[in-house]
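Help wanted!
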Amino acid sequence: MSKSVLVICRSAPYRSSAARDALDMALSCAVFELPVSLLLLDDAVLQLLPGQQSGAIGEKSVNAMLGALPMYDIDRIYTSLASLAAHGLEAESLDPSPEVLDADELKQLIDGHEVVLTL
Amino acid sequence: MIFTIVVHSAPYQSGSAATALRFTRAALDAGHRIHRVFFYREGVHNASALASPPRDERSLPAEWQAVAQEYDLDLVVCIAAAVRRGVLNQEEARRYEKPAANLAEGFELSGLGQLVEASIQSDRVVTFGGGR
Amino acid sequence: MTLHLLGASPSDRATFESCRSTLTEQDTLLLLEEGCYWALPHHRQELSRIPARVVALGPDCLARGIATEGLKTVDDAEFVVLATEHARTVSWY
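Answered by r_m:
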C-alpha cells in the first residue's frame, strides 16, 4: 500500500538541522517510491535564495541539495504567497523556483496527502 | 487503529517529548496499537542511558523504557541524527572509535526508512515537534 | 478533515498565521503545550475568529494556570479520539 506524504518545513537554512532533516525525510520517502511533496513555509522559503555560499560558515549548502531533488523524482517544491510576501520575495527570483500556493490551494495541498510530516 | 508517533524534541528542550509519551500511553490504554515511536532530530536525546535527573524529577528515557517494556513497543532512534549528536550503541561506538556507548536499553538505532515504513503501515502519524 | 496541533505560544505570530491559513471548517485545532496560552482572555477574540473548531488540552492548561471557561478542553484519551476522528494530523510548533 502506497501513501502520499507532505513534508512541511518552516525554518531558514543553517538555523538548525531542520532544513536538512526535512530534505532527508523527503528523500527517504522517494527511496520508498512514495509520492512526496515538499512545502517550504515562512522562513523556509529562504532556503531558495540564490547565491548561497554556505562554505563561508562551514556548512553544506541546503540550496544545492534542493536543486538536486528532481534527480530523486521530487519535482515540485511548494511555498505560499504569504511566505513570499513576508520577505518581499518573488518566486521567479528564487532557485529552484517554487510553485506558489494561495490560501485555498494550501488547504487543498494538505487535504491531498495522507501523511503530513512537519518540522 | 495503528499509530506512529514522531518525537522531535529532547527532554528539556520543550514539553513535547513528554506530551508524546502521554499520548502514547493514552492510545495504548484505549486499545490502539503503536506501530513505532520514531525519535528524530533532538528527539534522539530521549534515548540517552546517561541522562541522570535528580531523583525527585521525572526521567523521560526511563519512562519510555517502562512503557516500551509494558507494551512491547518499538522505539526507533534515527541513526544519522543520533550518531551526529553523540547517542551511540555499542556497534556505532566501535565503528567511530568512541570510548563509550550510551543508547538506553529498549531503544534501537535505525534509518529514516523506518519512519517511512511506519507511515505506510499506520493509520495515523502524529508528530510532536518543538524547537525548530 | 485535519487535526492541527498548535504548540507555539501567541508570541510566535508566524506559526499561528501559517496554521490559521490552512484551517478549514471541517478541521479541529488543538491547543497544547505553549499553544494553550492562546486560551488566555487577551487572545480569545482572535481565537473566536478561527474557522475551525478549537479545543485545548486540559492537563496542559491546568499545569500552566490557564482558565478554560468557554473553551472545550480534552484529556489525553480524548486527544487520541480526536486523532482517530480526523484523517491526518498536522503539527505547528
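OP: Thanks! One thing I noticed: Residues 2-92 of chain C form a domain with the Hypothetical Protein Ychn; Chain: A, fold (CATH 3.40.1260.10).
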